[in-house]
Amino acid sequence: GGSNFVEVHHLTFLSFVNTLSVMSDIFPPRYIKFLRLVTETEPECQSFPDVFFPDDWGQSERQANKLAREFCGRCPIRAQCLDYALEANEPHGIWGGTTPHERRQIRKRS
Question: What is the value of pTM for the model shown?
Answer without folding.
Answer: 0.72
